[in-house]
Structure formats: C-alpha cells, structure tokens
Design brief:
DNA-binding; elongated; zinc-finger; alpha+beta; nucleotide-binding; zinc ion binding; zinc; 5 helices
Length: 157
C-alpha cells in the first residue's frame, strides 16, 4: 500500500477492525518510511451484477438508485435514514444472494415493494404508484384496498 504522504510502498498495519455492517475491514496503517498514519478499507470484490430493464437494456446494478427511490417514497414520513439504509442493505443482500450475474428490474422492484410493505404503508403506496405505473384511480384504489385488507389481517393475529 502506497503512503498517501510520501508514496513509499511499505506500510505496516497498526490496527484492524470490521466496519459496523461487517462488509469490510478498516485498517490503520503506518508508513515505514515517514511514519505517516492513514486508514484503508479492505472489502471483498463483488462481481459485476447487471440489471435487465423493462426495455431489455442492461446496466450495472446501482444500490444508490434503490436508496433514492425509497427516500422519495418515504419523504415526510417518520422513517429514519438509518432504517432506510438498513432496508437498502437488506435488498442489496437479497439481490446478490440470488447468485445471478443478471437480474431483472422487476425482481428488484418486488424486493423493494416487500420491504416497504413492512416499513411504512404510505411509502409503499407511493412507490407502488410509480413502480406499477397506475393508469387511473381504480388501479390506485385496488392497491390501497389490498394494503388495508392486509393491515386488518395483521391486526387480528
């Protein structure tokens, strides 16, 4: 590892610990040449995951798009950023857990919808209205009735 201060290529690890999410290792290093201390992160190399869009185009999987969609759906709702990030992490794990090199945007959308159903009904309806491209009030009302029916069944248990 090159020192960011003097560019010398020998450093020693002073301290190692996993990050909060456990997906990488944080290492404190010290340059053997100048003594400069710096931090590096070591993570496993993820294989490229492609998303097959509705129009058949393919693009690299981008968890930021999931995060942005959930943030938009949860706008002005009592959902912490910590909880949103946790949901995005769970969805990322679900998608990668499929073990495929390509996944459809529909599969990802369903993972998001399932997560939002349990997180916040309003955020779920907002996301569903865009994701399912409601064409009229009937589509919206049908989805809303499904949510209300599901909510009543959960309260009875």
């Amino acid at each position: 590892m090159h020192c960011p201060h003097c560019q010398h290529n020998n450093s020693r690890v002073i301290d190692s610990r996993p990050t909060e999410d456990g997906r990488c290792i944080r290492r404190r290093r010290e340059c053997e040449n100048c003594g400069f201390r710096f931090t590096t992160f070591e993570r496993y190399e993820e294989t490229t995951l492609l998303v097959i869009k509705k129009d058949g185009n393919r693009e690299a999987f981008n968890r930021q798009k999931i995060l942005n969609g959930i943030i938009r759906s949860a706008e002005k709702r009592p959902i912490s950023m910590e909880k949103i990030n946790q949901v995005v992490e769970e969805i990322d794990n679900q998608v990668r857990g499929l073990g495929e090199s390509e996944v459809t945007s529909q599969v990802i959308g369903e993972f998001v919808m399932n997560a939002l159903k349990d997180l916040d009904e309003i955020a779920y309806i907002r996301f569903a209205s865009v994701y399912r491209q409601f064409k009229d009030m009937d589509d919206f009302m049908n989805e809303l009735q499904d949510v209300m029916h599901r909510d009543r069944s959960h309260k009875r248990k």
